[in-house]
């Protein structure tokens, strides 16, 4: 067994902010003794009961583009094991966000090919027998952190052995090297304080993928 600290990370491949955070936590793996374990969550599931409250553009995004990719990813996990998630997410995120190819079916097909997974997984695009598994994975992450958050969710062991979970951090561009490590240390420090809930400021910059 690994003696590294396990870090559970829930993502939706559609979210650019989760993508930024995922690249940061992989950088943290290089400078801190952690091991990332990937899990799937779904912005479509998260928002399915409040679509009427959302801006029209975001609602359309969730209804037309959010379901297909997560259905394919959960099928890949169920049929080929959870160990495929990290590489598949990297392939998807690189194409969707860094290359601005968008989350369409052709992009997902290319990402599957990138990591050697069968194109037949695309059969799950419009519906999947793994709906229950998708919702269970999503629920596991959300139950740890609460309903009023988005993606990503990160969970780490606390000092008492129980997991500490938090949303974010939301950061752009993704810090690298020791800067990534310092942000990790600080995030754990505030997350471990009983009763601590939130630090926030207005975003003045969009996702910056220039160093990825």
UniProtKB/TrEMBL annotation:
Keywords: Isomerase
MF-aspect GO terms: isomerase activity
Listed InterPro entries: Rv2466c-like (IPR053977), Thioredoxin-like_sf (IPR036249)
Name listed for the protein in its UniProt record: Protein-disulfide isomerase-like protein with CxxC motif
Entry-linked SUPFAM superfamilies: Thioredoxin-like
Pfam families given in the database record: Rv2466c-like
Keyword Transcription regulation carried by entry: no
Organism encoding this protein: Streptomyces paradoxus
């Amino acid at each position: 067994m690994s003696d590294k600290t396990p870090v559970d990370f829930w993502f939706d491949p559609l979210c650019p902010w989760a993508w930024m955070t995922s690249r940061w936590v992989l950088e943290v793996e290089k400078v801190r003794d952690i091991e990332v374990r990937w899990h799937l969550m779904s912005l479509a599931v998260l928002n399915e009961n409040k679509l009427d409250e959302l801006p029209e553009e975001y609602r359309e995004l969730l209804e037309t583009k959010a379901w297909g990719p997560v259905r394919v990813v959960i099928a890949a996990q169920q049929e080929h094991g959870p160990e495929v998630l990290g590489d598949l997410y990297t392939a998807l995120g690189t194409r969707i966000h860094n290359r601005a190819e968008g989350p369409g079916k052709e992009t997902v097909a290319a990402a599957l090919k990138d990591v050697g997974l069968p194109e037949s997984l695309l059969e799950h695009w419009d519906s999947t027998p793994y709906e229950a598994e998708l919702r269970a994975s999503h629920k596991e992450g959300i139950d740890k952190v609460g309903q009023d958050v988005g993606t990503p969710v990160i969970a780490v062991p606390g000092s008492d052995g129980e997991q500490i979970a938090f949303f974010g951090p939301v950061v752009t561009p993704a810090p690298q090297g020791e800067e990534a490590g310092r942000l990790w240390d600080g995030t754990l420090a505030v997350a471990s304080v009983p009763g601590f809930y939130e630090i926030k400021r207005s975003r003045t910059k969009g996702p910056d993928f220039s160093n990825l």
